[in-house]
Design brief:
- The protein is an alpha+beta fold.
- It has 2 domains: 3-66, no CATH class; 72-190, no CATH class.
- The chain is built from 5 helices and 9 strands, in the order αββαβββββαββαα.
- Strands 4-9-8-5-6-7 form a 6-stranded antiparallel sheet, with helices on one face.
- Helix 4 runs antiparallel to helix 5 (178-190).
- The relative contact order is 0.12.
- Mean pLDDT is 82; it is low at 1-19.
- InterPro entries: DUF5947.
- Residues 1-22 are annotated as: Disordered.
- It comes from Actinocorallia libanotica.
Amino acid sequence: MNATALGRMIRRAESRSRRGAEPCGMCGVPTGEEHAHLLDERGESLLCACRACAVLFPQESGRYRRVPDRRIRLTGVRPDDLGVPVGLAFFTRDAQDAVTAHYPSPMGTTRWTVEPAAWAAAVAGCPPLETLGPGVEALLVNKVRDADERWLVPVADCYRLVALIRGTWKGLSGGTRVWPEIEAFFARLAEGESCRT
């Protein structure tokens, strides 16, 4: 084993030993509670990233793209026009402008393709959607339990919401814990906080 590989192994062990610290997906150092994320285009996954690694990657292109941290409450979007059959969904756009809807569930996400004309109408009614970063940002819609919210968020927030639902859902209807957790998630969005779960 060479010195570089040994150094990486030691850094990974140190990362795991630090309580609550996620290791950077690029270099292995602890990232801290608040950290950036990178989208791995090939693996279609998110990596935690330390500040030093995050600044190396742009949001626009490449295998690894930095996930922005902007969160904007939106108006003018009609979720029913996008074909949302459920109360909670998020929408991502790829580099070819194809839009996929994702429905968080206790088993992960269910996906379906949004009709291009429906997405074009949504963008016409809500100009900030034009700037939705392909793969790294999402339109998040919440219509559960009388909520009526639409947000432009980092895709990492959507994955946190999926993890929250998977971790707290009980039985057929979700149980008593999942719904207050979802409400708290959106309350943190409204307060401008990170949506850590």
